[in-house]
Design a protein that fits this description.
It contains twelve helices and 15 strands. By secondary structure, the chain is an alpha/beta fold. It binds NADP nicotinamide-adenine-dinucleotide phosphate.
């Protein structure tokens, strides 16, 4: 089968189209004939060798794959031909194997490209907003990179919960999308300091919840616009630097800081994240939410696809098609 390999850590040019043996599903697993593979920012950090616990080269990247079930391992109650999306490893390929517990049905009304943008971003957004962040209609939330993958999912979910949504992005085009998806207060952080802007907009009281997938200086400034008793959920470091937490600041403000990692949650407590799937599926079917697919690339154009995300040109989800 055709697959993309990372033969060594490096920039996007290391991504190499190659031929690999067809993977066989073991007990409790199934194989998917991949129609669309989601690209995640973590794929980029893993490729650079910057991801703690990431795979060692050579490996096939890709943690999300949508398509039809093609082969079934022992003990799996599924049918060949079912339309599914899975959290997997080796998704940048024509075929990928996944554990049956990380496979979700794809309704016929949803394209495989949309399905490939569902699991990682929506499960992360839901857990950060509601399971950890306890967001309600009375609350305000700041979503960094609101036009990004997790950002577009989180923005829609927060708006659907009738919370007051603040969202940051780096361009007016991205902010237009964020606005359309439900951001009440779009902020271009390249033109104005987002913490000052939020302090002004909230009469110095700050926001109740912050979703931080950027880290670094963004995290530090976020604590300056978090309300007393507020919560920051850290789930990523797109800036390349994890954020620093000053315990003096958080104790003085009675603030809470949570971390969220989908892969570790699926390994140690899958029920905690998977509890949101029925609600998310219903919202998607009702048209209350949509998966924003910003761009699709042919599998062999994966180098350009990674660069597109790294150059911060992407919105929503970027998808590969084998
Ligand atoms: N913990 C988990 O389980 C989990 C799950 C999914 C994602 N994540 C993490 O969450 C973050 C967002 O993931 P995503 O897939 O949704 O990505 P994304 O939002 O589609 O892309 C990252 C965005 O971050 C912003 N950004 C800020 N500083 C950046 C920099 N120095 N370089 C590149 N981008 C920068 C950019 O938006 P602007 O141009 O608008 O600033 C960019 O578009 C990533 O750190 C990812 O690893 C974690």
């Amino acid at each position: 089968m055709r697959a993309i390999e990372v033969p060594e850590y490096g920039d996007a040019a290391v991504l190499t189209p190659t031929e690999r043996e067809l993977p066989e599903p073991g007990p409790g697993e199934l194989r998917i004939a991949v129609e669309a593979a989601g690209i995640n920012f973590a794929d980029i950090m893993q490729r650079r060798g910057q991801y703690p616990g990431g795979p060692a080269p050579p490996y096939v990247p890709g943690m999300e794959a949508a398509g039809s079930i093609d082969a079934i391992g022992e003990g799996v109650d599924r049918s060949v031909g079912d339309r599914v999306v899975a959290m997997t490893t080796g998704g940048y390929a024509e075929y990928a194997v996944a554990p049956a517990g990380a496979v979700f049905d794809v309704p016929v009304s949803m394209s495989f490209e949309e399905a490939a943008g569902f699991p990682v971003q929506f499960l992360t957004a839901y857990a950060s907003l509601f399971t950890l962040g306890d967001l309600t209609a009375e609350d305000s939330v700041l979503i960094h990179a609101a036009a990004g993958g997790v950002g577009t999912a989180a923005t829609q979910l927060a708006a659907n919960a009738n919370a007051t949504v603040f969202g940051t992005a780096s361009t007016s085009e991205k902010l237009e999308l964020a606005d359309k998806l439900g951001v009440d207060h779009p902020i271009n952080y390249t033109e104005t300091a987002f913490d000052d802007e939020i302090s002004n907009l909230t009469d110095q009281s700050g926001v109740d919840l912050i979703l931080d997938g950027v880290g670094g200086a963004t995290t530090t400034a976020s604590f300056d616009c978090l309300s007393p008793f507020g919560t920051l959920v850290a789930f990523g470091a797109a800036s390349g630097q994890p954020g620093a937490v000053d315990t003096g600041t958080i104790l003085f403000n009675n603030a809470s800081v949570y971390g969220f990692h989908l892969g570790q949650s699926m390994q140690h407590n899958p029920e905690r994240v998977l509890q949101s799937v029925p609600e998310l599926t219903e919202l998607l079917l009702d048209g209350e939410l949509s998966v924003i697919v910003g761009e699709t690339f042919d599998l062999d154009a994966v180098e350009a696809a990674h660069e597109y995300i790294e150059d911060r040109r992407s919105v929503g989800k970027v998808v590969l098609q084998p």
